[in-house]
Amino acid sequence: MTGPPRKDILRIGLIGVGLRGTNHLRNLLLRDDVRVTALCDIDPGRLEPAAGMVVEAGQEPPATFGEHEHSYRDLLDLESVDAVVISTPWLWHTPMAVDAMKAGKYTGLEVSAATTLEECWDLVDTHEATGTHLMLLENVNYRRDVLAVLNMVRQDVFGELVHFRCGYQHDLREVKFNDGKQPYGGGVEFGEKAISEARWRTLHSLRRNADVYPTHGLGPVAAMADINRGNRLVSLTSTASKGIGLHNHIVARGGADHPNASLKFQQGDVITTTLTTARGETIIVTHDCNLPRPYSLGFRVQGANGLWEVDGDRIYIEGESEPHRWDAAGPWLERYDHPLWKKYGEYASGSGHGGMDFFVLHAFVQSARLGVAPPIDAYDAAAWSSVTPLSEQSIAGRGEPQDVPDFTRGQWIRRKPYDWIKDTY
């Protein structure tokens, strides 16, 4: 597909300027190749300060929208918007992205991209029907250690790849319950009585027994395994532990008599998904967000000649490491530091999430300016996000295997791996 001609200045509209959208806005306003021309949010407490940020940055006042839930469509009608960044609650991601692509706007979409298999196909079908590109804004693909290990994979340091582990292991109880009255995370309210992400995120744990947030872990290993580009996800099985973490949090903070203490949360506290690939690798993805624990994405990359594990910060390479003993990963990661981090690392350091946010937006802006396919495209968004509905089906079937659709319709055989080294597209 051919895109529009190169744009020296990319005019961007942001749909959703909550905490995540405001961080994107802040980083976009630092660029001299971007103009923020429009904003949309139904919360005036978020919309007005965001518009002020644009003016304070020396740009023209943006058009603003937010009268009702579908006001974003008025933003999409603007000729002064070339591309959009969508940072809204999960259930709005696919509908908004589909509308944006139909409107011809280069679309940046926060994770996860979709919540059902139908939505996964909607993203792919709309991209193919319109020729408009979508980039999933998965920032962990740009984490410094992740890109260094990808660099090692591309240079065959680990040998033929065999197995991966990853996931999202992050105590989010302080995010899922926030009434705005206690110190952040001190409350036990969600839904209409809560603020920020607690207004919508916790409802997924209440109603779905699934890995609802797979892409932070799966995205980076999918890039290493060439998923959708010479390889593909074939099947998965999922299991879920019992779910007690959120109930315990409510009782500990609000008491056994609190109304929310009687709720039955459907989501298991630890959800384990095992994926198989066409080339024979296995990938274990873990979702663990409702129990007390330190943060980790649990990465493990294992090949015929060695492996890297993020927990323990350790690595082993046959023939270079002392037999049967781990090396500290630091010197290896420094040795294979990714060219993008060498070039932009100092500049990116203040952008959020350890610098990852600069790189994912940089790739989005560069791709959109040139009208070319992004590094993480609609097929990736669909394949990675499909873990949510498929894990739900597998858990409901007591671990019954589920086929992962081929969202590329056979093109994965011919698609070449993306060149993550390049800076210009």
UniProtKB/TrEMBL annotation:
The keyword Hydrolase applies. InterPro entries: Gfo/Idh/MocA-like_OxRdtase_N, Gfo/Idh/MocA_oxidrdct_glycsds, Glyco_hydro_109_C, NAD(P)-bd_dom_sf. Signal peptide: none annotated. Keywords: Glycosidase, Hydrolase, NAD. GO terms for molecular function: hydrolase activity, acting on glycosyl bonds; nucleotide binding. Its cofactor is NAD(+). Residues 147-328 form the Glycosyl hydrolase 109 C-terminal domain. Residues 10-135 form the Gfo/Idh/MocA-like oxidoreductase N-terminal domain. Pfam families: GFO_IDH_MocA, Glyco_hydro_109_C. It comes from the Bacteria. Belongs to the Gfo/Idh/MocA family. Glycosyl hydrolase 109 subfamily. PANTHER family: BCDNA.GH03377 (PTHR43818), GLYCOSYL HYDROLASE FAMILY 109 PROTEIN (PTHR43818:SF1). This is Oxidoreductase, Gfo/Idh/MocA family protein.
